[in-house]
Specification:
The protein has 208 residues and is an alpha/beta fold. It has a single domain (7-206), classed as TIM Barrel, CATH 3.20.20.70. 39% of the residues lie in helices and 17% in strands. It has nine helices and eight strands. It has helices at 19-30, 46-60, 73-79, 93-100, 113-121, 146-154, 172-177, 187-190, 195-206, and strands spanning 7-10, 34-38, 66-70, 83-86, 105-109, 126-129, 161-164, 182-185. The protein has an eight-stranded parallel β-barrel with strand order 1-2-3-4-5-6-7-8, surrounded by seven helices. Strand 6, helix 6 and strand 7 form a beta-alpha-beta unit. The longest helix is centred in the N-terminal third of the chain and has 15 residues, at 46-60. The two termini are 25 Å apart. Bound molecules: ligand LCLJCK34, the ligand Cc1nc(C(=O)O)sc1CCOP(=O)(O)O and magnesium ion. The ligand Cc1ncc(COP(=O)(O)OP(=O)(O)O)c(N)n1 binds at residues 8, 10, 37, 39, 70-71, 85-88, 90, 107, 109, 128, 138, 162, 164, 184.
């Protein structure tokens, strides 16, 4: 797998959001350090996901930034994205690996050491671990696991751990100290008054 960026921006496609403007602003600051994960609402059509992924890929290409597609691996393949991300309601990790082939980047959600190790054993290249803190971006999540939960998972695997859920620049140092390799965010960038500045602050915290 090519080296994974440490800052993952997940697209915010909730009504009233402007994901492409936010992606543009983040890319201009983070460039090749950014991974953009295209995540659409469950109610979105495959065509909508495909169109957004194509547009995100076109924005990423000049910067050499990677684009991953959440859940819909056929969309990832169709647009020639770097890979995809799956969780408990998506294809099992082993099946996702078969779909993506041996070289695609495959992320899996893991909240505990055992599921983390199992996901890596069957083909995950990185793990999304959380929710680290409370978040209003996604409902129905279990209680936050905090840096201690990240530490438990990162100690059980030898792939990059990407901390997710309520991540802010101020919370990055504790997550890195707990063994996280990077972070994934929605609100910290998409909800910021100045997404470029928020990106710079997150990058600064990640590279301290
Ligand atoms: C980096 C990262 N980590 C976790 C998730 C969550 O994936 P999942 O559990 O499948 O939930 P949805 O995002 O599909 O609602 C993620 N997308 N990215
Ligand atoms: C999509 C998603 N998955 C999570 C998980 O813990 O699996 S938390 C989350 C939302 C992250 O958004 P924000 O950065 O605004 O908290
Ligand atoms: Mg999913």
């Amino acid at each position: 797998m090519p080296s994974l960026g440490r800052l993952h921006l997940i697209t915010d496609t909730r009504p009233g959001r402007d994901p492409l403007t936010v992606v543009r602003a983040a890319l201009a600051v983070a460039r090749t350090d950014l991974v953009v994960q295209v995540r659409v609402e469950d109610s979105a059509t495959d065509r909508e996901a495909y169109d957004l992924a194509l547009r995100v890929l076109a924005l990423c290409a000049p910067y050499g930034a990677s684009c991953l597609v959440n859940d819909r691996l056929h969309v990832a393949l169709a647009v020639d994205a770097a890979g995809g991300h799956v969780g408990a309601d998506d294809l099992p990790v082993a099946a996702a690996r078969r779909v993506l082939g041996p070289t695609g980047v495959l992320g899996a959600t893991a909240r505990a050491p055992q599921t983390a190790a199992e996901a890596v054993a069957v083909g995950a290249n990185y793990l999304g671990v959380g929710p680290c803190h409370a978040t209003s971006t996604k409902s129905g999540l279990p209680d936050p696991i905090g840096p201690a939960g990240v530490r438990a998972v990162s100690g059980a695997v030898d792939v990059p751990v990407i901390a997710i859920g309520g991540v802010t620049a101020a919370r990055v140092p504790a997550l890195l100290a707990a063994g996280a390799y990077g972070v994934a965010v929605v609100g910290a960038i998409s909800g910021a008054a100045d997404p470029s500045r928020a990106t710079a602050e997150l990058l600064g915290a990640l590279t301290c």
